[in-house]
Amino acid sequence: MFMVRRRITLLICAVVGIVLVIAQVIRYEQDRPLREIEDQLRTHQTSAAFRRLSQFLKHHPHDSRALAFKARILVEVGQYPEAIQLFERNGAASSADLHAWAKAHLLRQEWSSALPILQRILKLNPDDADGLHEIAAVHAFLGDYQQALAYAERMTRLQGQEARAYFQIGTLHESVGNKKSAADAWNKVLSFSPDANGLQVPAAEFFVMCGSTYLDLGRIEEATSAFRKSLSLQDTAEARLQLGNALLQSGQLPLAIESWKAAIALSPGLKGAREVLAEAAFQSRHYDEAREWMAPLVAANEVNSKTAHLMRRICLAAGDTEGSQHWQDRTTELNRHEHLIFEINQMLQKSPNSEWSQAYRAYRFAESGNWNEARQMIDALEKGTIAQEPFVRQLSSAARQGGGLPSLSLIPVHDVQ
Description:
Shape: globular
Distance between the termini: 89 Å
Number of helices: 21
Low-confidence stretches: 14-30
Mean pLDDT: 87
Order of helices and strands: HHHHHHHHHHHHHHHHHHHHH
Structural class: mainly alpha
Helix content: over 70%
Radius of gyration: 29 Å
Number of strands: 0
């Protein structure tokens, strides 16, 4: 009897094993189309993947993996809202899905929405280079530069990612005016990639950035070398402008003027080049020529306090009393505004996480048309201690009902701790 029971048990086990094997084979065959679609997505065969996926969804309309693939395809073709809706409804099954989901938010400049998705990516894989790069950028856009630098520093420890990481560190330092730290980062970039290949920007653009930082630090020879390196890769107006500035600081005015004129030939509306050429003409007492260089900037209202002050000097030297007074008034007005912006930026550096810093960031997002991000910040401000401040109330009204943005003069920069 015992032997009979044992044989029956073994038979049952064998049958179950066979059934499981058959089930695995069936499942493997059923998944084959999805594996092929995933391979096509991995190799950027988006059109072929879409055709295959459309056929699959006709028979399996609720398959979560297939719907995630559809969302990834929607991201690739620029249909970000539809992709986000699919991800929110069906979730993400893999790191690739999460990257696509985050990308949709990033391309819509929805930094706060992208942040938790990027955090999930890094929880799955702490050494995900793209995830580290993107989350650092998101923190920078949200004004948290210390956290951004921390993630970028983590990226420097990944083999093969060092140059890319130090480039991001350099841009972060540059954005808050830390020129010396930015220059140190550029040098690190070049130690890992002497030709500046494989960065987030073309090599020619990097060498202009690098040279501009050196120029600000008074390292003229290094700056000149960087600008010439950029021009050897691509002849651009910005590189010509900056090379002229470097040549001027090394006492080579005729060569500087030649470089600035070459910049104008490449980009006729280039503000910096027109200003320095106007200044050079003014110093040579060629006042009409100076006016001609400035005319397109004045016509386009591309004027800051420096531009206005130069126009006042030109008018004064040419005997144009009325014009001189007009530009004196503009200089005073622009100086006042630029000083306010300077004080606000000082506030951002001293108290980056304060409510007033968040209020200014919300203003900047709104000013650039990024109302989604602005509203999220405003929602938080309306629950805080400055909710009843005129600046916040007017900003909230603009976000909810339309209308103009509040004056920046309503930010009490001297009272912010």
